Amino acid sequence: MGDWDVNAFGNDTAREWLIELVAGESTSAILRAIVNVAKLPATDYLQAPDCEVAIAAAELVVAARGKPSNQLPPEAATWLANRKFVAGKEVVAMALKVLRRIEDNSELKEVWADTNSANDWKRSINDLKNRLEESENDNAATVIVDRAANPDELFIKALEMAALGDHKNAIPIYEQVLELKPDSALAYLGRGTAYLELGENKKAATDIGESINLDAEVPEAYYLRAEAFFRLADYERAMEDLDMLVKNEPERPEAHWKRGLCLQKMRHYVDAVEDFTKVIELGFNLKDAYMHRADCYESLTKDKEAHADRQAALSIAQTQAAAAMES
Questions:
Q1: What Å distances lie between residue 243 and 75, 80, 185, 320, CA to CA?
Q2: pLDDT at residue 143 above 80?
Q3: How does 188-221 read in b/e, with b if 16+ C-beta sit within 10 Å?
Q4: Each residue of 294-312: pLDDT tens digit?
Q5: What's the rounded Cα separation, in Å, for the pair 265 and 242?
Q6: pLDDT at 141
Q7: What average pLDDT does this structure show over 182-198?
């Protein structure tokens, strides 16, 4: 192991990374070091250098949240303070996830397992995890603030991560954008969409609402907020957004579809039938539209119409099944 030590900066890889970091102004390398490991598939075997840098970055994250190691290099502490660097809870959660993966399936774990310091290394990792977990209770901490970063470039990066389905890790990047550009309607919309994808519907509705407050001319925002309200069973507020959307875009099928579902939940079956009929006319989500319209007809005791719609839905399902078998 040479001159290696179990602390986060006790190896050449971490020390060289830190030297390069403090020589510059940007704090983005801290988040990048953690994200580079977090984004790898769960079954991937983590390489030792990536792990060493991620552990060092996690030490800077927890130090910035007021829980530094007594072995934190002085130049790191000074550099963090000068940049007023703080990491938000999402970054803490990401760092914890990375540390657990390193403990579970990594080259670094195996390297230390072959030494007399294996238990010391485990204690060092556990200490870092414990400090990260304690720091999560600090509500005063906000997000990573890198005043030298370009908010437009960060926004594009967040969009790229979201496009890959990595919504959880896109959120702290949207937060950086909002720290640098607090009136960015698109950043609020992006973060709100990420929350929606993660099932955090209250946060989604709040963020998308802020986006609408900043820019009321983005139709997609109304649809997404309606989706959040629908999931929260707040159908009346969802209807307000959907009514506006249908008024401005009367041929938008998903707006009629979602409004039909809201009306059905509210037991406004006649109006729901109108929306589902429009969905069918527009050729959108046909099988489900017929089924939901059939349910509404049934609630209105229109059994003949309900039966006809169920037959139409069955025919579509059979056609889809046959096509799937052929392909």
A1: 57, 49, 22, 32
A2: no
A3: bbbbbbbbbeeebbebbbbbbbbbbebeeebeeb
A4: 999 999 999 999 999 999 9
A5: 14
A6: 45
A7: 95
**39: number of CA atoms within 13 Å, CB side?**
16
Q: How many Å is the maximal CA-CA distance in the chain?
A: 83
pLDDT of residue 1: 41
Long-range contacts, stretch 62-67, CB < 8 angstroms, 24+ apart: 62/92, 62/95, 62/128, 62/131, 62/132, 62/135, 64/141, 65/92, 65/135, 65/138, 65/141, 66/135, 66/138, 66/141, 67/131, 67/132, 67/134, 67/135
Task: Give the closest residue to 13 by CA, choosing from 45, 55, 44, 46.
Answer: 55
Written as six digits, the tokens of 207 are 């963020």
> Which sequence spans correspond to the domains of the chain?
12-135, 265-327
Q: Considering Cα of 218, then 223, then 227, then 233, what sign does the dihedral take? A: positive
Which of 82-86, 272-276, 317-321 has the highest average model confidence (pLDDT)?
272-276
Instruction: Report the SS3 class of residue 183.
Output: coil
pTM over 0.70: no
